[in-house]
Amino acid sequence: MPPRSHQEYAITTAHLDRPDAAPEPLTGWLSSLITELLGLEGQLPADQPLGEIGIDSLTAAQLSVEVEERTGAYVALERFLGDETLDDLVASVADGVTPRASA
Predict the structure, then answer these.
(1) Cys-Cys crosslink for 84: which of 29, 72, 88, 95, Cβ 3.0 to 4.6 Å?
(2) What is the pLDDT of residue 18?
(3) What is the pLDDT of residue 20?
């Protein structure tokens, strides 16, 4: 069976409001979104730094917009380009991430 497309995941903020909600749907969705944008096969290792998998600034911008549109959680571009892992990102999105820097 081929990996699921990120568009097949029903990600809403409703499941993020429950403290007992499992992060698996969010992990699968984020992994699929990242692999699709990068043209990779399969799921990302949850503990691999995202900066090591080939995300550039344009892809980081696309990821940031898609995550915010689907979950309401803002993720700064730098978070996709550094040492954070998929697990780190999932935890941040589930917690609502940090607010945007004020201008």
Answers:
(1) 88
(2) 44
(3) 43
Alpha carbons within 13 A on the beta-carbon side of 83? 0
pLDDT of residue 43: 81
Domain ranges of the chain: 6-94
Which amino acid is located at 74 in the chain?
A: Y
- 2, 3, 43, 60, 103 from 89: Cα distances, Å: 24, 20, 15, 13, 24
Domain 6-94, CATH number (from 3.30.70, 1.10.1200, 2.50.20, 2.60.40): 1.10.1200
User: What was the pLDDT predicted at 31?
Assistant: 93
Structure tokens at 60: 């980081």
Q: What CA dihedral angle connects 5, 80, 52 and 28, to 10 degrees? A: -30
Report residues of the chain scoring pLDDT below 50. Answer: 1-2, 6, 9-22, 102-103
